Amino acid sequence: MNVFDRNINFDALFKFSHISASTQEHLKRVYASFALCMFVAAMGAYINVVTHLFQFSLLTGLGALGLIVWLTATPHSRETEQKRLGMLAGFAFLTGTNLGPLLEVCISINPSIIPTAFLGTATIFACFSLSALYARRRTFLYLGG
């Protein structure tokens, strides 16, 4: 399936009916993968700041680029689902490790910036995720946007 050959129904933007159960299940899976990526990227950033193992940001950047290209080239199916999730987690980890030098600068200015930013981002993400997962009507989703 070509990414650019999709039939997009723009009438769905103006439909305020109830969300189907299959759509809510899809939303749960999408937000679960987003949450996984956020925590894996935080773990990669933490490992980089504490251990200074990955100081070659060019290599981790190229690795992240390679993983995201491999992910987009892998067709979606039930058989490749776990493999694609692993590629996405690897991309998130390498992206988190690339934040190491930036986090070092933030730590030198004020160390409380990092946990404040992480907790603020996680809280906002959790609130938006819960509103998308538990809203029965589409109108509530548009309020959040």
Largest sheet: none
Category from helices, strands and their pairing: mainly alpha
What's the mean pLDDT score?
A: 81
Computed over alpha carbons, the radius of gyration is 18 Å
Q: Termini, distance in Å?
A: 30 Å
Shape: globular
Order of helices and strands: HHHHHH
Low-pLDDT residue spans? none
Q: Number of helix segments? A: 6
Instruction: Give the proportion of residues in helices.
Output: over 70%
Number of strands: 0
Classify the beta-strand content into a percent band.
under 5%
GO biological process, one term: cellular response to unfolded protein
Family: Belongs to the BI1 family.
Protein name: BI1 inhibitor
Membrane topology: Multi-pass membrane protein
Characterize this entry briefly.
The protein is mainly α and 145 residues long.
Q: What report would you give on this structure?
A:
The chain is an all-alpha fold and 145 residues long. It has a domain at 28-121. The protein is 72% helix and 0% strand. It is globular, with a radius of gyration of 18 Å. The mean pLDDT is 81.
